[in-house]
């Protein structure tokens, strides 16, 4: 098994903490990377994530990069790939710095892990259909604003574009939107406001890329190569008729790598909620703890990953309806359940009950 030093990118791209956010964004775009290290006085000070910046509703492009840098865990060059995967699964980060004497000497990304996917035994037996999630898409004739909303709902940097019902015709990336935004939203003060009515005049078709997708029955190793060559972190999944049937994400592949028959415990991955949804997080973890105990007893499952994605829909009466999509997968298990309703706890309870009923069968 290789070490971190053998797969890391040496002397990774970085910016000084006093550089502008605009400079950092341009550096990331130029190098086709989703994050960039921030240094202060020559020492590693944090990571700037492109996706987090572009999703903000208001950004002053002259802001200092250090104001947006996030603290991250780090790796040592002698660490194993298993340890790197463990950190990825625990933190949800897309890249982790390799630090020596407080200085960044390299960086390991999820892409680096899947580029070395053959280092992990028995991975070649898995198909795309074993890991794919529920699909989401936009129509090629819809306004650009709708694709941005879908990205926010699914915490994604890419959305499949369909025509004639559900046939894939393209993909729209966060970079496509960012290029459009930077060119059309800068004003004399340098303030950028991603809102506005101008977006309504731009169709998705006018800025989308040609379709890139995987078939349901393809080998995961083959699709990993396609993800790498197209600089993608997620890829649409289609049937033989090119109709969209799901989404495959690098995070799911990494989660599967981190699970073996001996791995104990369940990794809970929650997305779609904001930092202000503390009560919902508490509900999820409290109910999930009890569910995992019951489910493990029924299935004799030692280790798995359980993904929960929440979308909140607000009605005209200011009531909130919750759509909850879940996926539970391990080495030899792949189940998904989705539901929606006005009572968050009741919807989640119903989902857990469905898993238990299926497991008993």
Summarize this, please?
This protein has helices at residues 4-7, 21-30, 50-54, 81-91, 110-115, 144-154, 174-185, 220-229, 250-257, 278-299, 344-360; strands spanning 9-10, 14-16, 35-40, 43-49, 59-60, 95-100, 103-109, 138-139, 158-163, 167-173, 191-192, 214-215, 234-238, 244-249, 265-271, 303-314, 320-330, 333-341. With 361 residues, it is an alpha/beta fold.
How much of the sequence lies in strands comes to 25-35%
What is the radius of gyration?
A: 21 Å
Classify the helix fraction into a percent range. Answer: 25-40%
The neighbouring-strand order within the major sheet is 15-16-17-18
CATH topology of the largest domain: CBS-domain
Number of domains: 3
For this structure, what is the CATH homologous superfamily of the largest domain?
A: CBS-domain
Mean pLDDT: 85
Which geometry do the CA atoms define?
A: globular
CATH 2nd-level architecture of the largest domain: Roll
Residue stretches low in confidence (pLDDT < 50, at least 5 long) are 191-197
DSSP helical segment count: 11
Query: N-to-C terminal Cα separation, in Å?
Result: 39 Å
Total strands:
18
Which series of helices and strands comes N to C? HEEHEEHEHEEHEHEEHEEHEEHEHEEEH
Largest β-sheet summary: 4 strands, mixed
Q: State the name of the first-level CATH class of the largest domain.
A: Alpha Beta
Helix/strand-derived category reads alpha/beta
């Amino acid at each position: 098994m290789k070490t971190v030093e053998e797969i890391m990118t040496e002397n990774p791209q970085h910016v000084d903490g006093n550089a502008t956010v605009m400079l950092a964004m341009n550096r990331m775009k130029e190098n086709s990377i989703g994050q960039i290290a921030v240094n202060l006085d020559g020492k590693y000070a944090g990571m700037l994530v492109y996706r987090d910046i572009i999703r903000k509703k208001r950004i002053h492009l002259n802001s200092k990069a250090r104001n947006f840098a996030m603290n991250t865990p780090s790796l040592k060059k002698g660490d194993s790939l298993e340890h790197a995967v463990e950190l990825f699964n625990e933190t949800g980060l897309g890249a982790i710095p390799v630090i020596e004497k407080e200085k960044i000497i390299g960086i390991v990304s999820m892409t680096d892990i899947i580029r070395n996917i053959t280092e992990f035994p028995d991975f070649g037996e898995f198909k795309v259909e074993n890991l794919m999630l529920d699909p989401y898409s936009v129509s090629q004739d819809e306004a650009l604003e709708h694709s941005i909303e879908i990205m926010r709902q699914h915490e994604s940097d890419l959305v499949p574009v369909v025509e004639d019902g559900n046939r894939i015709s393209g993909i729209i990336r966060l970079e496509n939107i960012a290029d459009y935004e930077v060119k059309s939203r800068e004003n004399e003060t340098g303030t950028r406001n991603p809102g506005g009515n101008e977006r309504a005049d731009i169709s998705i078709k006018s800025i989308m890329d040609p379709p890139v997708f995987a078939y349901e029955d393809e080998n995961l190793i083959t699709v990993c190569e396609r993800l790498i060559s197209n600089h993608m972190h997620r890829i649409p999944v289609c049937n033989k008729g090119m109709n969209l049937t799901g989404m495959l994400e690098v995070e799911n592949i990494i989660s599967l790598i981190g699970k073996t028959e001996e791995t104990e415990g369940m990794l809970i991955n929650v997305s779609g909620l904001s930092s202000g949804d503390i009560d919902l997080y508490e509900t999820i973890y409290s109910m999930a703890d009890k569910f995992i105990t019951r489910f493990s007893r029924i299935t004799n499952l030692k280790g798995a990953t359980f993904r929960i994605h929440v979308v909140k829909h607000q009605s005209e009466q200011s009531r909130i309806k919750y759509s909850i999509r879940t996926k539970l997968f391990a080495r030899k298990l792949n189940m998904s359940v989705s539901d929606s309703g006005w009572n968050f706890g009741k919807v989640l309870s119903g989902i857990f009950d469905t898993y238990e009923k299926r497991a008993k069968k």
